[in-house]
Specification:
Blueprint: E1 21-22, E2 31-32, H1 53-73, H2 80-97, H3 105-129
Antiparallel strand pairs: 1-2
Helix pairs in contact: 1-3, 2-3
Length: 138
């Protein structure tokens, strides 16, 4: 896929471990590289993190739960309207704004997967803020 927002995925890979460290985000942690000179490497690096779609979905569920817990601990909340609007927004952003429609069937599927992930994140946040989740008490 060349569109949909997943390509190119620019990630810092080579750095001096003594000078830089990762931030404390539970989801999508990144290197704190403020002030560093970033030189892009040529070519593509395949970063295959899951063996199959089921493994990918399990990872997405874990990320969604961690994202929701992190937001909940910061006092964030959502509503049913928020769940709906963020889910629809994720679908449209992937499909239209990021050009997923140009990736054909794969772009449509990715738009649906991104919407599902967003739905799960915000539903989990809603559940935490309404006392329906056991994750906070464990």
């Amino acid at each position: 896929m060349r569109h949909s927002g997943w390509y190119p995925d620019r990630v810092l890979r080579l750095y001096e471990r003594a000078r830089y460290r990762y931030n404390d985000n539970l989801v999508h942690e990144s290197l704190d590289s403020l002030g560093a000179e970033v030189i892009p490497l040529t070519g593509d690096l395949l970063h295959l993190t899951c063996r199959d779609f089921a493994g990918f979905q399990q990872k997405q569920l874990a990320y969604a739960a961690a994202w929701a817990l992190e937001r909940h601990q910061k006092g964030k909340k959502t509503s049913m309207a928020g769940i709906f609007s963020h889910t629809l927004g994720a679908f449209l952003k992937t499909l239209l704004l990021r050009g997923g429609v140009l990736d054909g069937k794969q772009g449509w599927l990715l738009a649906m997967v991104n919407a599902q992930y967003t739905f799960t994140k915000y539903t989990e946040l809603w559940a935490l803020s309404h006392g329906y989740s056991e994750k906070e008490s464990s």
